[in-house]
Amino acid sequence: MKIGIIGGTGFQDLFSDMKEQTITTEYGDAVVFIGKHEDKEIFFLPRHGIGHSILAPYVNYKANMMALHMLGVARVITVSAVGAINKEIAVGSLSLLNQFVDYTTRDQSYGKYSVEMTHPFCPELSASFKEAARLIGEPLREHTTLICFEGPRYETKAEIQLFANWGMDVVGMTTATEATLARELGMCYSVVTLTTNMAAGITDVNPSLKAHKAVGESKQETIKNLMTATLSNIIEKKSCSCSEPYDRAMEAMMIK
Predict the structure, then answer these.
(1) How far apart, in whole angstroms, are the C-alpha atoms of residue 29 and residue 25?
(2) CA distance 121 to 51
(3) How many whole angstroms separate alpha carbon 106 and alpha carbon 152?
(4) Full-prediction pTM beyond 0.70?
(5) What are 84-103's pLDDT values in tens digits?
(6) 137 conformational bin, left if phi > 0, alpha if psi -120 to 50, beta if neither
(7) Longest C-alpha distance within the chain, in Å?
(8) Cα separation of 63 and 147, whole Å?
């Protein structure tokens, strides 16, 4: 079984003997680290590039997701840093997304067909995340909605107040684009978020890259443990419908 992991820089050390490989796609190149976990092939993709050098709006999402698809990856688990809009979500805590609102204007489609996104995250992978969190004793907030913001700037206080009125729980800059492209390619996709700061105006502390990195580093071992346990929980047989839009589109293209 081939499983993709998308996360921050440093996860290439999650497993021993991971080998770096550059995958060339029609949308550009993507760097992937390839290794093993139990009986599974693992493909780690650092979404922001080596050394976290690429800010969210400039990530080549199409190349990243296509590279995993070309490698035969059918399931993708990810971790993403976010700011909390909901005051019940504490800095340093983990949340499992079940919905998102896309507030970006970036190109996020391969343009081959219209994709159904009623439920954007794979229920099977989400269940694996929940079981893994239980096993390692890490609280995991469920039923969390993210709003995806363009970036690279942080949000204004007025924008966050608007998002709060809409019922948004957290704000991030990458998830909606990855999830949409994954669905277009027929890949299962699920994400756990790490809250690295409270969003603008929620508290007197303003968001900062320094604080963002500090929280990420402090929770790195927890994230690695969660990912390892999640990988062990993922089973071969699938019963979800994540790939159905892609399968129908490919069948229609073949008929034509």
Answers:
(1) 6
(2) 28
(3) 12
(4) yes
(5) 999 999 999 999 999 999 99
(6) left
(7) 59
(8) 23
